[in-house]
Amino acid sequence: MCGFLFISSDSQICSEKFSSALNDMSFRGPDFTNTLFLKEKRLGFGHNRLQIIGNEDEGLQPMTSFCGRFILIFNGEIYNFKKLIKSHFPDYHFSSDTRLLIELYAKLGSECLNLLEGMFAFVIYDLVTDEWFACRDRFGIKPLFYHQDNSTTIISSEIVCFRHFIDLELDLDSVNEWKKFRRCCPNHTFYNEIYEVLPGFYKTDSKHSTWYILEPSDVSFCFEDTFSEVVTDHLCSDVDVTCLLSGGVDSSLLASLTDLRTHYTVGLRDNNEFDDVKEFCDHMEKLSYFIEVKSGELPLLWAKMTQRRLEPLCVPNEALIYSVCMNMPSSTKVVLSGEGADEIMFGYDRIFKYANNQTQLDINEFLEYYSYSRAKPTDRILDYINDLSRGKSPIDFCEDFFLHFHLPCLLRRVDFSMMLASKEGRVPFVDRRIIEPLYRKPYEFRCENGVSKSLLKNILKKKGLSFVSLRNKIGFSTIKPSDDLKSYYENFQNIMLQELKWL
């Protein structure tokens, strides 16, 4: 896990600016910082490392391939790296997913992407052809941003780095989209001329193209067995691992499938699930730490996080995720979380039931169900939604909207809020082996007899954990049932707009 920075320029790169940019995202990798400058090619590579797998030398980046042709900077984890080493490099002796990635690319080129199980964003430079290749994982778990003009290319894990090299100009459409949807239109950021590499896409000097398309899978599928295997893969680490527990269905199922003893939960004094978490942990003979955040601390946390990110946050509870991670010991660097379960299991009752009961999609009505804001949607986001909905039933569109639009927003939330505390967030529900077999399965498969997430609840019942399914869901929420959502979000957003001086 890390943050990285790549620059290709027609002029020499200022090492002081480069170092300052890396320092701005040092929270992503406080263990080691390394740079590589190729002055004759006017290239700069920078890497902040959070050491998770392998020793200091094995995962050291920027990394050069054994053949000397390729240079890699990489953020993420490849969970099946040991299997790939065994099958593709049986005569080599290395135990780093970073080394596996660069050698597999050297061997197979971009075809290697289809073999990778994990979360990743990376840049590989070919010293022979003088071409770069940037890539992002299938579902956008890891962030990847770029700027490209006639003279300079900048690629990085965080937008805050770009301010050292270009003038940041606010994209007002993005601000309006964020007010209504909690994020920008896909491919855009809050700043003109800075874009995201889309989930499942790669970027070269001349292309921004897809390498992965989500399609239904007809393979035989037992969710419990497959998810248990995926969770085991996500426990791969040479450092301590923990799990976030909210007391709800998703995190309880996740925790029940691990042998982890220690867990963490967080909440406000008058809005938490501490009693539910304690009941689960007592039943499972597990331990949980309970982190309480005062309501009055939230505006200060929102402002601080916004300042470090140089963007507004997506949702209020990022402050809670950051706070609980800050209360973990430094030796605990990996945190499992239940993000993605609601999206793949149709867990947002109100909107998925609405979509399932419609015979024809009314986009304006759908957006009323989805949005907490009174802001008007921009033309470009309406174009995006129209393209996404074309030829689809309401429930199929709803599934795609939550997978391609809503989920990346939540993944950015968990990535940034955990990485700001120098913790690697892992999301086992967001895995190809889970999502593909579920994709386009009927509503009733996931919500039997109209019961939300019945597929998960049936597993909990089999484990003697039916009591988890009977609770009212709170999650790590900063919003009380008595709060008006639209007013709450307007206040939350105004605090960040003031911090960024965008008001």
Describe this structure in words.
This protein is an alpha+beta fold and 503 residues long. It has 19 helices and 17 strands. The chain has helices at residues 15-24, 81-88, 97-108, 172-181, 223-234, 249-256, 274-284, 298-309, 318-326, 341-344, 349-356, 363-370, 379-389, 394-419, 432-438, 443-446, 454-462, 466-469, 485-499; strands at residues 2-9, 32-38, 43-49, 63-64, 70-78, 118-126, 131-136, 145-148, 152-156, 195-196, 201-203, 208-210, 240-244, 262-268, 287-293, 332-336, 424-426. The strands form 3 sheets. The chain has a 6-stranded antiparallel sheet with strand order 2-3-1-9-8-10, with helices on one face. Helix 2 crosses helix 3.
Helix content: 25-40%
End-to-end gap: 35 Å
Rg measurement, Å: 22 Å
Q: Which whole number gives the mean pLDDT?
A: 94
Oligomer: single chain
What's the tally of helices? 19
Sheet of most strands: 6 strands, antiparallel
* Strand residues, percent: 15-25%
Strand segment tally: 17
What class would the helix/strand composition place it in?
alpha+beta
The geometry reads as globular
* Stretches with pLDDT under 50, minimum 5 residues: none
Strand order of the largest sheet: 2-3-1-9-8-10
